[in-house]
């Protein structure tokens, strides 16, 4: 079996080389992901979970800028699966991007799919995760992209690099939770614990012996590569008595700055330097949920890990806890994000589109839909829904990319609106109930190749409003502005940062506020955009772009590989 897989991968590599996608100098990393269930015990209970290679979190993948990954995904589990390479642009090759029924049909149990992931200019921390239903709760891992050969970090080389993956845990089966809240129309049950590198930490029951520990030496510096893999919560993170130096986010460098804490959205990655400059002792690193909405249930316990200095001393017991912002401190969350600025030096130039040719305004709302039965458990006995520009997205049963490439009719429509169909006071109080009803359709927005795009991402106060971490596949974008309230097209652009805006793939739109992003549409294909709060995705807060081919041979969508999963 392994010989057959090896031969097949060799055939894939030849296929890629003939397409001109695998330069002779590219380094190819080969990995095998076996999707299978494995038993795990946390917070006094045990269950089987879906994993990659039996590991939770999954394996850390290492590469250098410009390398290629070939990952053979074998599904030995009992449910459909896809794998998304979060933050990788996949130039001209969305076939391995991963979102179910957007760029591929799922990998069915007993089948496999060999994904090819071309790294381009990404450098820093990204991650990979399942992109079908809620499987990413346990199927996820870090993707660490180091500088290319003969280049260095834009900061002194750290003593060590440590992935820190924030996650969460349900005692119940995750898929059963999804089925229950989608059937009832209610909100999803909160998780039972947050995790750092798969462990809840000392403040949860039955967890002390397995708490993640990081041993450090005094006066040494460590690079923490932090991933927020939590399903439905932005998180505050800090290390007791230590300042953090933020140096990167979403696979790009930022101007270094010091902070006592970070705010990190689901889907986002942040790189920080930790200087071990305190008295030898044990110190907690901790993470807790940020929640801006009254009445939304969430786990309010801090997940912890331990920084332990090497040497002979009597450690504090318990270790010192970090001072984190209050759970509802919106200003703390927003103000941290505003500190992010691109490094923008000679070795790391930026290219912000200045001449915008396509202006879009997308509203992100939590909605309700009439109950199909007598009554549901959402507001006013309706069911929860969510929308972008008042369209609650319906996943097709054939993936959009295949339908676009093969010109299959009836799978999607290309009439996603450039602006909200109804113009109202988006962040006002006591909004009319009729505004809560979205349309349910499968719509895409078509972009011409090479257009300079600006999208204003506008939150609304329908059903109270909430922060929305918005993720765009296939691109990194410049966050040129953000603020509270309704976007003012005449005043707010005057305060845009067009000099050194951060380059990101996930941006948290503050509750009842907005963010403006820019990118050049130079990556042809089908690319998903969605909120990275998983319950919002389940309710329909998503859409897709089709970026058309350009005129040149290097500006066209590449053909699919021979082993694409079938619907």
From TrEMBL:
It is an enzyme of class 1 (oxidoreductase). Lignin degradation and detoxification of lignin-derived products. It is found in: Secreted, Extracellular space, Apoplast. Gene3D superfamilies: Cupredoxins - blue copper proteins. This is Laccase. Binds 4 Cu cations per monomer. PANTHER family: LACCASE-15 (PTHR11709:SF443), MULTI-COPPER OXIDASE (PTHR11709). Keywords: Apoplast, Copper, Glycoprotein, Lignin degradation, Metal-binding, Oxidoreductase, Repeat, Secreted. Its cofactor is Cu cation. It catalyses: 4 hydroquinone + O2 = 4 benzosemiquinone + 2 H2O. Its main location: secreted. Belongs to the multicopper oxidase family. Its EC number is 1.10.3.2. InterPro entries: Cu-oxidase-like_N (IPR011707), Cu-oxidase_2nd (IPR001117), Cu-oxidase_C (IPR011706), Cu-oxidase_fam (IPR045087), Cu_oxidase_CS (IPR033138), Cu_oxidase_Cu_BS (IPR002355), Cupredoxin (IPR008972), CuRO_1_LCC (IPR034288). Residues 37-149, 161-312, 421-550 form the Plastocyanin-like domain. NCBIfam families: laccase (TIGR03389).
């Amino acid at each position: 079996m392994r010989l057959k897989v090896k031969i097949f991968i060799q055939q894939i590599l030849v296929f890629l080389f003939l397409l001109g996608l695998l330069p002779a100098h590219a380094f190819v990393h080969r990995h095998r992901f076996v999707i299978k269930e494995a038993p795990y015990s946390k917070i006094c209970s045990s269950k089987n979970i879906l994993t990659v290679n039996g590991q939770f979190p999954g394996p850390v993948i290492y590469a250098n800028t410009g390398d290629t990954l070939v990952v053979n995904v074998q599904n030995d589990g009992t449910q459909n699966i896809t794998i998304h390479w979060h933050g990788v642009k996949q130039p001209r090759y969305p076939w391995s991007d991963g979102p179910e029924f957007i760029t591929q049909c799922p990998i069915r149990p007993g089948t496999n799919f060999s994904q090819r992931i071309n790294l381009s200019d990404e450098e820093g921390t990204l991650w990979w995760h399942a992109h079908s239903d809620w499987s990413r709760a346990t199927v996820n891992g870090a993707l660490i992209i180091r500088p290319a050969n003969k280049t260095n970090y834009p900061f002194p080389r750290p003593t060590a690099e440590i992935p820190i993956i924030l996650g969460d845990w349900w005692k119940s089966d995750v898929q059963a939770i999804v089925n229950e809240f989608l059937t009832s129309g209610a909100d999803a049950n909160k998780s039972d614990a947050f995790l750092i590198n798969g462990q809840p930490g000392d403040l949860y029951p039955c967890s002390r012996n397995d708490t993640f520990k990081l041993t450090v030496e005094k006066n040494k510096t460590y690079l923490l590569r932090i991933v927020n893999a939590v399903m439905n919560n932005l998180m505050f993170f800090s290390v007791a008595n230590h300042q953090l130096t933020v140096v990167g986010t979403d696979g790009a460098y930022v101007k270094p700055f010091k902070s006592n804490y970070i705010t990190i959205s689901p889907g986002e990655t942040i790189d920080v330097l930790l200087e071990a400059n305190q008295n030898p002792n044990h110190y907690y690193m901790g993470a807790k949920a940020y929640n801006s909405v009254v009445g939304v249930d969430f786990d309010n316990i801090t997940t912890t890990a331990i920084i332990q200095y090497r040497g002979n001393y009597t450690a504090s017991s318990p270790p010192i806890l970090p001072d984190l912002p209050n759970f509802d401190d919106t200003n703390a969350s927003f103000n941290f994000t505003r500190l992010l600025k691109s490094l923008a030096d000679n070795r790391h130039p930026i290219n912000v589109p200045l001449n915008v040719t396509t202006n879009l305004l997308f509203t992100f709302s939590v909605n309700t839909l009439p109950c199909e039965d007598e009554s549901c458990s959402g507001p006013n006995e309706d069911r929860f829904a969510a929308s972008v520009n008042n369209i609650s997205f319906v996943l097709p049963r054939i993936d959009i990319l295949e339908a676009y490439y093969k010109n299959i009719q009836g799978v999607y429509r290309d009439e996603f609106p450039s602006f909200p169909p109804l113009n109202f006071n988006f962040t006002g109080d006591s909004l009319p109930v009729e505004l809560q009803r979205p349309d349910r359709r499968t719509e895409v927005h078509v972009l011409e190749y090479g257009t300079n795009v600006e999208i204003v991402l506008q939150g609304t106060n329908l059903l109270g409003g909430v922060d929305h971490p918005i993720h765009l596949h296939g691109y990194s974008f410049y966050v040129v502005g953000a603020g509270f309230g309704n976007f003012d097209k005449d005043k707010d652009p005057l305060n845009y940062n067009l000099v050194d805006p951060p380059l990101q793939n996930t941006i948290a739109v503050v509750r009842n506020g907005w963010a403006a992003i820019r990118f050049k549409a130079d990556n042809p294909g089908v690319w998903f955009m969605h909120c990275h709060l998983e319950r919002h995705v389940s309710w329909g807060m998503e859409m897709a772009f089709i970026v058309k081919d350009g005129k040149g041979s290097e500006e066209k969508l590449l053909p699919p590989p021979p082993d694409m999963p079938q619907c």
